[in-house]
Amino acid sequence: EIDKALTRYQVLAQAGMADRAEAELAKAVELAPDNPTVIELQFLRAIGRGELDAAQGFATRGAAANSDGYN
Description:
The chain is mainly alpha-helical. The protein is built from four helices and no strands. α1 runs antiparallel to α2 and α3 runs antiparallel to α4 (52-64). It starts with a helix and ends in a 7-residue tail after the last helix.
């Protein structure tokens, strides 16, 4: 189910359907809040909105989970 929500989010975001994409990302967060892709998408969304404090929080979570495999 998480994969479907993430795919729907990406398709809707690319199609410019921001509200619907946000709803799918919210579903993904509910399903798997610690999923590395979910954390990355939340980080990117926060950066895009200029929400730097939120972005820092997502970056910290991602680093703690070693979600990029480089830590």
